[in-house]
Specification:
The chain has 82 residues and is of the alpha+beta class. 38% of the residues lie in helices and 17% in strands. Strand 2 and strand 3 form a beta hairpin.
Amino acid sequence: MRKWQIQVAKNRLSEVVRTAQNKGPQIITQNGVETAVLLSADDYRRLKKPALNLVAFFSKSPLRGIDLDFSRKQDENRDIEI
């Protein structure tokens, strides 16, 4: 990621946008502090894509349909010194 001072970014906006499209997010600084990030529209859409809810996540799992044994072993309790 390249950093651009805000004054330079304003003067060279077309270049900053092209760089964001071709090379990824570009950081804009103001008084030496990172204040903004310019993203391509594709990167933004990818970030804003809705996350799967838990049911959808598990339904897409490659382990879906496998019979798993969730029973617990009924061993005797252990003696622990405290």
